[in-house]
Write a structure and sequence with these properties.
Residues 7-35 form the Flagellar basal body rod protein N-terminal domain. With 279 residues, this protein is an alpha+beta fold. The protein has helices spanning 2-27, 240-275; strands spanning 37-43, 47-56, 64-74, 78-85, 92-94, 101-105, 119-125, 131-134, 140-141, 147-148, 154-155, 171-172, 177-180, 183-187, 190-193, 200-201, 207-208, 226-230, 232-234.
Length: 279
């Protein structure tokens, strides 16, 4: 009985966490460059139950022998194992702003060991932990003329340096080169992650490596191609209709576990108040 309480409670906790994840995806459905989180729910290892018994062996002294009769497996609950960002390309939206620059995937190699498709990101200067990475190309110029993202982090060029411009009268080519009066002044930095699932997702659509090391430049990586489109931003890749359906499914699963918990509670109440009553 008490084991059933634990199993049901684990199911409710898993569905609650899944609901929180899906709600966060829905809240960021209009955030440029946001990558939807995905969850995987797994079960704890099952327990094998058996019943101990004894039987008399037909011998002169009637020796008793013990045996174990297999009853079956018992589930021990579920848990949300991990969250993984879905890094598929989002749709492009035209803004006609020179500081909005969309990063468009081209050819991205697949890791032979893990089967993961690589990903490219803009390079940002993190104020505390080295570099950060983003797909959000909704950039702006700060008062000093430095190219920054929406949170004020500096956008880095291919050499790891900040990019300073006089004003927003500049042109960005498909290969990331920034031209002012037809003269190239910088190339927007882009990094390549061969195993993007190993990146840590931070707030505001930022990613960082788990060990704090910087990702290699995508310009110098073989078989990697991409392009940039000025005056556009990459929209979130959240599928609002699918997310709403998954939210309803998670809510109903939570509600079903809740009803089972109520049934267990009623059974315990009956056992205490009626079965254990002394007449």
């Amino acid at each position: 009985m008490f084991r059933g309480f634990h199993t049901v409670a684990s199911g409710m906790i898993a569905q609650q966490r899944r609901t929180e994840l899906l709600t966060n995806n829905m809240a960021n459905a209009n955030t440029p460059g946001y990558k939807a989180d995905q969850s995987t729910i797994r079960s704890f290892p099952d327990m094998l139950l058996s019943r101990l018994g004894a039987t008399k062996i037909p011998t002169e002294n009637a020796v008793q022998g013990k045996y174990a009769a297999e009853i079956g497996e018992l589930g021990t609950g579920v848990y949300m194992q991990e969250t993984i960002a879905l890094l598929t390309q989002g749709q492009l939206q035209q803004t006609e702003l020179n500081t909005d620059i969309a990063l468009i995937d081209g050819t991205l190699p697949v890791d032979a060991e893990t089967g993961q498709t690589g990903a490219v990101f803009y390079r940002l200067q993190h104020p505390v932990e080295g570099e950060a990475y983003t797909r959000n190309g909704n950039f702006t110029l700060d008062p000093a003329g430095f190219l920054t993202n929406a949170q004020g982090l500096y956008v880095l060029d291919n050499n790891g340096e900040t990019i300073q411009l006089q004003n927003d009268d500049f042109r960005v080519a498909g290969d990331g080169q920034i031209f002012v009066n037809d003269a190239s002044v910088a190339q927007i930095g882009v990094s390549f992650a061969a195993q993007p699932d190993s990146l840590r997702k931070q707030d505001n659509g930022l990613f960082q490596t788990a060990d704090g090391t910087n990702l290699p430049s995508a310009y110098n990586t073989a078989n990697v191609s991409f392009s940039m489109q000025q005056g556009y931003i990459e929209r979130s890749n959240v599928d609002a209709a699918r997310t709403m359906t998954d939210l309803l499914t998670a809510y109903r699963a939570f509600e079903a576990n809740q009803k089972v918990l109520q049934a267990y509670d009623q059974s315990m109440q009956k056992a205490v108040n009626e079965v254990g009553r002394v007449n």
